[in-house]
């Protein structure tokens, strides 16, 4: 057993993966987990007047059996570092969505603490919904003495809000594993106003400068007591260095007979980075790096974090890697990286859109029928999500219970010649084929007036009765070509490069037609 493999995307729950790895193997962890924001994050797109959406993920938490089991584990002694704070939060909050969220996070933060090297740091991105509770949990796990900063990032401009004051910022909690943590000093460029106020003077060649004290008066450790060009003082530099500065035109002789040092603007790195960040713009609809993923963070934000708390060659882990901004930033800055996400949709997006052909390994994604069977048996919901995204142009539902017989949706690129809808539906079955559920899905396809319905199985091609039912469901025509309206497609065909007979489909993120050779999920 060892740490995460560099250059690898892991599909599944980060708790499952992190529990398999050795401790003290990671240099930097950044996570942008669910916030308990009570929001369902949907991807929306519109084409030819029709609007479609799918739920990328839900960030609404409720008290359920899984939350009760987590609390029982903490009360029973599991999660030793977070035990006391979770017990206290239980007394304070009681069984609630917030406590469900905090026990979920505490379990995972315990493992992140274990994985960090002594010189490592963790940056947890959250918002005011739960940041105060998360800080208490992190104080317990990482130690209050290892709290470094609470960073405020202005993520949007002022707007009307249900609160008294508009909510325009996120919070990033920075903790280290120990006092001996990696930190590389970061700076921000001077504002024009700052330059005009401080760098008022300029040499004949146009170089702007401000003057600074070169005396050692008031400094501990003493200085150099001598006279230079008629000025006697206790200086910070010895006589030979003073003469060298004068020869380089770096001394300013004041009208009152003093000597000061010139500090040139073009030699200054900028202002030391503070804990309020207003200079990194969020992703907007016009941003060139925009992938359409909900909660996508700008690369500049992650590059700043990676630079500050790691060095080239260090290992950066993102346990909730989403569309892969952390991975992209780490790769650009010559760090090793590993990412985990519970959405196969996100893993596909990173590979096809973010990394664009760069070397990457995956774990947890089925590579053959045997591993697909194993995933269906051990993690049926993850199997459903993965299987939906094998269909070009389809995206999975996040809602996994009570989904009305629909596990995924897609949109045809153009409206059929003889049908007034471009909607495509999918249902995934990881067990044995049954004619009754198949007929129910045909009913759902008709109920929702979908143009296409795809019924996905592990390896069954159906029965004679199901083939008759598919014939009865009819065909649609797109661009003069006929397609079965209801299709039965076994995942076994995916591993044989045999795709279903679908009309041209839209990319679920951009809403633009997919190119078959470059399809995101083909």
Describe the secondary-structure layout:
Layout: E1 8-11, H1 14-18, E2 26-31, E3 40-47, E4 50-58, H2 65-75, H3 83-93, H4 97-115, E5 116-126, H5 131-142, E6 147-154, E7 169-176, E8 187-188, H6 192-198, E9 201-202, E10 208-213, E11 224-228, E12 231-235, H7 239-247, E13 251-253, E14 259-264, E15 271-272, E16 276-277, H8 299-309, E17 315-318, H9 325-332, E18 336-341, H10 344-354, E19 361-363, H11 369-378, H12 380-388, E20 394-396, E21 408-411, E22 423-428, H13 435-447, E23 452-457, H14 464-473, E24 475-478, E25 481-484, E26 486-490, H15 491-494
Parallel strand pairs: 1-18, 1-19, 2-5, 2-17, 6-16, 17-18, 22-23, 23-26
Antiparallel strand pairs: 3-4, 5-7, 6-7, 8-15, 9-10, 10-14, 11-12, 13-14, 20-21, 21-22, 24-25
Helix pairs in contact: 2-4, 3-4, 3-5, 4-5, 8-9, 11-12, 13-14
Keywords:
26 strands; 15 helices; nine-stranded mixed beta sheet; five-stranded mixed beta sheet; elongated; alpha/beta; 522 residues
Assembly state of the chains shown? single chain
State the low-pLDDT regions, or none: 40-57, 517-522
Shape: elongated
> Major β-sheet, in short?
9 strands, mixed
Average per-residue pLDDT, rounded, comes to: 88
Distance between the termini: 33 Å
Tally of DSSP helical segments: 15
What is the β-strand count?
Answer: 26
Strand order of the largest sheet: 16-6-7-5-2-17-18-1-19
Instruction: Give the fraction of residues assigned to helices.
Output: 25-40%
Rg value: 29 Å
